[in-house]
Design goal:
InterPro entries: cNMP-bd_dom (IPR000595), cNMP-bd_dom_sf (IPR018490), RmlC-like_jellyroll (IPR014710)
Protein name: Cyclic nucleotide-binding domain-containing protein
CATH superfamily: Jelly Rolls
Number of domains: 1
Number of strands: 8
Helix content: 25-40%
Domain Cyclic nucleotide-binding: 9-78
Organism: Streptomyces ferrugineus
């Protein structure tokens, strides 16, 4: 849940780009246990966590979904909205009561197209998030399913 500095929204985006993004946000809340999205579903929105935590999970045949990562304050929930075919690669569930900013993906993609500097900032930020999540997923899946775990010193 401790995201690297570049994946936290305030550190990844300039003040101007943060303000521009937050102008189109809608405040939402979810109770603990609420599903934000399911793997394979249509990725038409995303969130930035204000308070609470979200678990990202992955379907595993014959087992319960495996929790890949836990996200907290100022972290991006969902990146699939930015890349075609705009379908979720993981699932997400509120691990605690959640308050977040919600964004309409089409509106943000339009802003990115009309302002290349803003679009570049968003693309770099989301790319950093994707890289971080892929590494977290790799380590978590190795811990869960490899014969000797990830090999990380404990």
């Amino acid at each position: 849940m401790n995201a690297p500095a570049t994946t936290s929204m305030p550190r990844a985006l300039s003040a101007e780009h943060r303000e521009r993004l937050l102008r189109i946000a809608r405040e939402v809340s979810f109770p603990q246990g609420a599903r934000l999205f399911e793997e394979g579903g249509r990725a038409d929105r995303f969130w930035i966590i204000r308070t609470g935590t979200v678990d990202l999970d992955m379907r595993v045949p014959g087992r319960q979904p495996a929790v890949i990562d836990s996200l907290g304050h100022n972290e991006l929930v969902g990146w699939s909205w930015l890349y075609s075919p705009h379908s979720w690669h993981l699932g997400a569930e509120a691990a605690s009561p959640l308050r977040a900013y919600e964004f309409d993906a089409a509106a943000v993609r339009e802003l990115c197209e009309t302002d290349p500097e803003f679009g570049g900032s968003i693309a770099r930020w989301v790319g950093e998030v994707v890289a971080h999540r892929l590494q977290a997923a790799r380590v978590r899946l190795l811990d869960l399913y490899a014969p000797y775990g990830s090999g990380s010193p404990r």
